[in-house]
Fold Exocyst complex component 8.
Amino acid sequence: MAMAMSDSGASRLRRQLESGGFEARLYVKQLSQQSDGDRDLQEHRQRIQALAEETAQNLKRNVYQNYRQFIETAREISYLESEMYQLSHLLTEQKSSLESIPLTLLPAAAAAAGAAAASGGEEGGGGAGGRDHLRGQAGFFPTPGGASRDGAGPGEEGKQRTLTTLLEKVEGCRHLLETPGQYLVYNGDLVEYEADHMAQLQRVHGFLMNDCLLVATWLPQRRGMYRYNALYPLDGLAVVNVKDNPPMKDMFKLLMFPESRIFQAENAKIKREWLEVLEETKRALSEKRRREQEEAAAPRGPPQVPSKASNPFEDEEDDEPTVPEVEEEKVDLSMEWIQELPEDLDVCIAQRDFEGAVDLLDKLNHYLEDKPSPPPVKELRAKVDERVRQLTEVLVFELSPDRSLRGGPKATRRAVSQLIRLGQCTKACELFLRNRAAAVHTAIRQLRIEGATLLYIHKLCHVFFTSLLETAREFETDFAGTDSGCYSAFVVWARSAMGMFVDAFSKQVFDSKESLSTAAECVKVAKEHCQQLGDIGLDLTFIIHALLVKDIQGALHSYKEIIIEATKHRNSEEMWRRMNLMTPEALGKLKEEMKSCGVRNFEQYTGDDCWVNLSYTVVAFTKQTMGFLEEALKLYFPELHMVLLESLVEIILVAVQHVDYSLRCEQDPEKKAFIRQNASFLYETVLPVVEKRFEEGVGKPAKQLQDLRNASRLIRVNPESTTSVV
């Protein structure tokens, strides 16, 4: 019942939106007044969005259906035009025959009859000649059938000479003269227009041969000369009449997948002649090739062996057994689906029915799998290979980064699967990975750098690693069972993509001089996302370590220098006095901080009334050193072991050297005892905590820290010296 109510609501909404007096502003205003809150507006928005998607799907379905019907209708119109032209030609010949009948019935003398017959012949020749003359204005050259109707047409040598003479005026087309049996059918001047905006492009001259169409451009500086522009085989060419729309008139369109060109004739008569002669020539070429295929596929009788009785000159003694000639096996290409295969492939490519095109190719390959390759089969293969090339170009364009990158990796599955079926597995892999690289790059660029750095890094990691995970799963689906080299290509691509990610990561985290704690949190987030790839068997942790090691080393070095400078500054102002925290709350807070740093026995260094029996410099050094160690361990991986260890040693040396120097230089017994107490805290409490925490974080002890702790004094200085070596 709820479904029925939703359907009725959707239909009511559709009728309301489709009404003639619908006004969007008034509709939104009424909807806002009637709604109870944000939830109602969201639900109404979802209903409108669902209705829009349904309308878009219906529109797309109607467009595809109308496009298919348009192609079928255009083909039928082409057939009807050719039949009407043939009918008109037959009626003209019948009329001429009927008009000449009374002349033959007149009771005149033989001479008068002969004169009348001669007069009739001139009249008939004049009609045909007039037609040829009219076409000659546009450059019409008689075809093999029509040229010899009046007995005045040139032979094969004459046609070749005519073609040679005209094409000598076209630069860059000498290779055309090498095709045997090629001759000129029609030629004339045309003006080419731009297909989208109908702007005039250039003046051209068209040369229609019996198997192709040559387009040449004018050379303004050389009158009567042309430059080669393009050559289109007739079997891949479609002619479409363009309806007159003043001032754009007398135009027709040539379709050569995947491009099209629009030309304008001098007048309507020349345009009609171009359309007629193009269709006639295409039909003649198709009929010729069909006849050749039928002749090649027709079975031949066994060779005739002359009998001995019919050869009286044959010597019986020299009679030798004759070896019968091995007849070449014939391949039956007369089936309708094979005859229409090139055209069907063109239709599938035009309609973007890639699966249907590949199915037809598989069917043909299966049929010709174990059969020989006589000339008709080779000719068919050549036609099909041209369509395969066109189909491959279209599929390559579908995977190019210039296309829309929306839809995720699954949007490429259709083109990739068909390329694999065509035997282009390597190309499919390369294009798929290139497409996904562009998609990842675009997704990273579209991220807005706003708010805290850690928030941006969370978004960056989510976008990148989600895309990488989806790409890996789609790759495994598309290329399962293919050459293992594709998987190597994917690993190389993943490393390149990781480099793209690290560039964006480092630019935001390390180049902007973020604190070590922020950098550590960001690196931790990146590592966690990277480890999720292990679910599909892809471990890129070592790659992200290798790419980040220099930036992390730089961050550790910078923060180490900051701690050393701060410690030196505090040492220079050291008065060796106990800390007075003034309030119990402050003392309790310090105890919690020291406990979080790992110092469990800090109670023994506290006195009465909020006093601490340690120097402010030593306490600050302890907190800063332990904070540096905790953040550095978040960044740790084996390549950073010595860098972290050396940084810790340098930081600790600054403090212990200052304590050692102060102990040797101080003369006041009370202050000297206080300094010894601080030295004991450093050696017996702080250094063991640092050593233990380092071993826990790294997994192995550090000999340098052990030596530092076991030494009673790290630096031997001159007792009489009053200058610090720090």
